[in-house]
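Page 37, top half.
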Amino acid sequence: MKLFIAITAAVFALATGPVFAQRADIATNPPEAPYQKVSDLVPLPDFLPGIGQLFIDPATLPAGPFVAYDHNGRLVSTIYMIPISQMNADTNFDNLAAPGGNVDHVDIYYNAGHPGVEEPHEHIVLWHVPAEDEASVAE
């Protein structure tokens, strides 16, 4: 529980801390190499409701960061998928990058696993859009 609180505090600090510049290589869909479309790497749909179209640098699997785009190609979030087995007192997650730029708000939720990140994990979603714009990836 202490580690979860520490991660939550770190993510909150990231979201409320200094303004981050959006990286030009991921500003538009598709992002530049080494990012690749997740649906080309593992058997997942091209667009995931609630998340969007995902891209990742395969060298950063399983944790990420993943970058997510809406149907119009707008970058909406940066997502980390941290395996539960790595969330222990001996592990730190320092300096999580927000390559998508400014972070408006953060969501953290459990996922039982899926292709690409089969192990149960937490999604740490750094939203670059206001909460009302999350609807752009709802369906």
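Page 37, bottom half:
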Amino acid sequence: MNQTVVSYLAEYEFFDFLLKIFGQNTSLLAFVIFFLVAAVIVGIMATVGGLGTYAERKISADIQMRMGPNRVGPYGILQFLADGVKMITKEDIMPANADKMLFYLAPVLCLLGVFATLAVVPFSAGFTMTDLNVGVFYLIAISSLVGLGVFLGGYASNSKWSMLGGMRGASQIISYEIPVTLSILAIVLLAGGMSFGVIIGQQEGLPTNWFLFHNPFAFIAFFVYFVGAMAETNRAPFDLPEAESELVSGYHTEYTGMRFGFFALAEYIEVFVVCGVAVALFLGGFNLPFKLDIDILPIQAVQAVIFFSKTLLLYYVIIWARWTFPRLRVDQLMSICWKYLTPIAIFNLIGCAIWMVVFKGHSIAQIMFGSH
């Protein structure tokens, strides 16, 4: 996996042509490439976030035997564009006694925290913004901005409903970060590095090489991570920070127009990010089921399709879970985290460490079949 998207494009002849256009100014060309790639990724993710609202409605309608969106565009496919227009044109209202600066800052923090994580999400071997050697650490650290935005949104609104939702969100996100991080550390231990390139590189070839099937502890760690990620993204049955049946709309009750849209967009993009991270850590990432010695742009496109297919499949499972399981109580939410998921995550981490020592890092498939 390449260090950055710029280093990957530098391998092609057209890069030298572009360099001549920019007067051999490598720094300027790199800045322009990063800017354009970032703009494309943000545009794609904004579209994915918008389509997520459409998918949510359609899937829930199927589960509940209802129609769902069917008026705006074929099969209602343009409903998310209509929602966007509605958000932009709606009046922006702020409570009279709200903290103006924090009120405006909260949705921006949520969106910024989500977009910043996209810098290390490995869409393919070449089309990744940057493959940091501490990519996992960066991802965990920068994603904490979302929790801060949720809390500030509730605090700054000067509303008891929003404040309760913000406090729930902060306690929930901080709590579930522990089992999620421990599950990620188990994979870091197996891969021997915090770079997503290193982690995905260890899973080349057949699905038997995926870390999901490396050992029993890693298999359990995937489900601990997935449940914890659902809680961190405030998805049902863990949507206590919103809980419209008791808190009106939770931490974003007082938000209208596009500021509310920022919260919604951040949530749906964050769901995509946590699913993408699960694919990179446990499900082989963008790897093809066989090794190729050639590296051309069509191969990169195929890798991206594989990555998006796996990620969107998990995305579907998260939406499916929302419309299947009832919402938990606050005490049940915390009990699941501290009494069950956290001890299991610690057990998995220790188990992976023991497995690495006893079996010298070999997976179950390598032990049974001698495969690499």
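Margin note: Residues 93-369 form one domain.
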